[in-house]
Model the fold of this input.
Amino acid sequence: MRIVVVEDEVKIRKGIINLIHKHTSHSVVGEASNGVKGLEVINSSNPDLVITDIKMPELNGIDMLGALNKKL
Done:
């Protein structure tokens, strides 16, 4: 499974990525620190799963997923 992690707090984002690498065979294909960058990473990497924070600067997680849903 190809995963993108979108989280504004670096320690949490890196922690999630480390847990995925340590405990699964899935690959993290991208990461972003806000919803705007998240959209770019998701569009360019075409992941199977997106793990996102809800409260983030510039574009929150819910609005980011809404924008992605409109493209489908």
Residues 16 and 72 are 27 Å apart (CA to CA).
